[in-house]
């Protein structure tokens, strides 16, 4: 038997680490967990992280980063007030039983802010 996974990090590439850092730190408000120079890792939840590494010519493709929250409308209002343009305003999606909206980060990655309406979705664990 192997030890369980205790944390999760998703790494994405960026051609502009400065603009990416400004967006995720100042606009989204994610705390910087670790600055590795050409990679910056942000805490998204108790044990979930999102990292961006500088790579020349990085192209966003086929990726959706989803932030799960019970307050989709609050996030939408907060980010709109900061000038963020959304591709899709909050709406209920009956196919997946979710309430969500979409925007893009400075790299062109598609970001989704979502609430699962299905009670079968696991609730977040309490921090230890």
Give a description of the structure:
There is one protein chain. The protein is an alpha/beta fold and 128 residues long. The protein has one domain (8-116): 2,3-Dihydroxybiphenyl 1,2-Dioxygenase, domain 1 (Roll). Helices cover 16% and strands 39% of the residues. The strands form two sheets. Strands 1-4-3-2 form a four-stranded mixed β-sheet, covered by helices on one side. A hairpin with a 4-residue loop joins strand 3 (39-43) and strand 4. The longest helix has 11 residues, at 17-27. The two termini are 23 Å apart.
Pick out the low-confidence regions: none
Number of domains: 1
Number of helices in the DSSP assignment: 2
Number of strands: 8
Helices and strands, in order, run as EHEEEEHEEE
Please name the CATH topology.
Answer: 2,3-Dihydroxybiphenyl 1,2-Dioxygenase, domain 1
- Rg result: 15 Å
CATH class category: Alpha Beta
What is the SS-derived class? alpha/beta
Q: Specify the CATH homologous superfamily.
A: 2,3-Dihydroxybiphenyl 1,2-Dioxygenase, domain 1
Beta-strand content bin: 35-45%
What is the architecture at the second tier of CATH? Roll
The order of strands across the largest sheet is 1-4-3-2
How far is the N terminus from the C terminus? 23 Å
Mean pLDDT: 93
Shape: globular
């Amino acid at each position: 038997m192997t030890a369980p996974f205790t944390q999760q990090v998703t790494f994405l590439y960026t051609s502009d680490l400065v603009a990416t850092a400004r967006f995720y730190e100042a606009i989204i408000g994610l705390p910087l967990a670790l600055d590795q120079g050409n990679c910056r890792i942000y805490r998204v939840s108790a044990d979930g992280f999102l990292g961006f590494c500088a790579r020349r010519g990085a192209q966003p493709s086929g990726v959706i980063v989803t932030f799960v929250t019970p307050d989709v409308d609050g996030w939408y209002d907060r980010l709109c007030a900061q000038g963020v343009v959304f591709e899709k305003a909050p709406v209920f999606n009956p196919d997946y039983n979710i309430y969500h909206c979409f925007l893009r980060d400075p790299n062109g990655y598609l970001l989704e802010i979502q609430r699962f309406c299905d009670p079968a979705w696991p609730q977040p664990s309490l921090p230890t």
